[in-house]
Design a protein that fits this description.
Elements (H helix, E strand, L loop, with lengths): L6 E4 L2 E9 L16 E5 L7 E6 L7 E3 L3 H6 L8 E8 L4 E6 L8 H6 L7 E5 L5 E4 L5 E3 L3 E8 L5 E4 L9 H7 L6 E3 L9 E5 L3 E8 L4 E2 L6 E7 L9 E4 L5 E2 L4 E8 L3
Antiparallel strand pairs: 1-18, 2-3, 3-4, 4-11, 5-12, 6-9, 6-11, 7-8, 7-10, 9-13, 14-15, 15-20, 16-19, 17-18, 17-20
Length: 267
């Protein structure tokens, strides 16, 4: 699709989810009304060390937790799953739940989840566009409706569902409770003003950056592979698509553009 040297545009791979949206035309005008709710658009290439998604929740996601690399390896599950969310859009009052409320007790979690009240124990907070939330492995979490999130995660599908509010999907309480623990998860403060470029989050698994480029602006070459998502603007990457940019390659944008970038490795 792209004629920019070193740039490989990745067509979205759409994933149906019970909590997803039936209308994605604001992001993908070529799509009509969906036959079933679509919750995710996968934007990184298959077998990439990071999986990048856009999430479109119209209902609350399950209360869930992901294992770390040690647990996953010991149980034949490959790698663990740490992730981060960049809030692309947020309706007024939209909330995310990360970790437990300060007054909640961990020994209450199993009973609450079995009773369909797991979400009541989470620490819920309102979010706005441009905010970043770190969700390390072991963090109990849930996503509320009314947001569009760009999620960057280890390339793993290891999810232990603790409470699904009676929607009939399988729960994984034994495994989930074995890996759930207090973590440093939650909002991060990258120190970037709105509309500015720079590092948003650095973890042991990936680095997440934002590039806010003016018309004619250039993303300069880097010595390593980068994965990009166009959140707004016009360039060789269509809005809502991902791309892989090879080491030593650059990218010039036609109009004011906001790109999210992921690289592997610690900051």
């Amino acid at each position: 699709m792209s004629t920019t040297p070193g740039l490989r545009v990745i067509p979205p791979r759409f994933q149906p989810r019970v909590w997803g949206a039936l209308d994605l035309s604001a992001w993908y005008p070529e799509r009509g009304r969906e036959a079933e709710p679509v919750g995710e658009a996968w934007l990184s290439p298959p077998n990439c060390p990071v999986l990048i998604k856009l999430l479109f929740p119209r209902e609350r996601l399950s209360v869930q937790v992901h294992p770390d690399d040690g647990y996953a390896a010991a149980h034949g599950l490959g790698r663990g799953k740490s992730e981060a969310w960049y809030v692309v859009e947020a309706e007024a009052g939209a909330q995310l739940g990360v970790g437990l409320r300060p007054e909640a007790r961990w020994e209450e979690l199993e009973a609450a989840c079995r009773a369909g009240r797991g979400a009541e124990l989470l620490h819920w907070f309102e979010v706005g566009a441009g905010e970043v939330i770190d969700v390390p492995a072991g963090t109990v979490h849930a996503i509320g409706p009314g947001v569009v999130l760009c999620e960057v995660q280890q390339d793993s599908d290891n999810t232990f569902r603790l409470d699904d509010y009676g929607r009939g999907r399988a729960l994984h309480l034994e495994q989930g409770l074995a890996v759930a623990r207090p973590t440093t998860g939650g909002k991060v403060t990258p120190g970037l003003a709105a509309g500015t470029s720079g590092l948003l989050l650095g973890t042991e698994h990936f680095r997440l950056s934002r590039h806010c480029l003016a018309a004619g602006g250039r993303l300069v070459p880097a010595p390593e592979t980068r994965w990009l998502v166009n959140l707004q603007g016009e360039c060789a990457i269509p809005r809502g698509y991902g791309a892989e940019l090879a080491p030593g390659s650059d990218l010039t944008v036609a109009s004011a553009t906001t790109l999210l970038e992921a690289r592997t490795g610690a900051a």
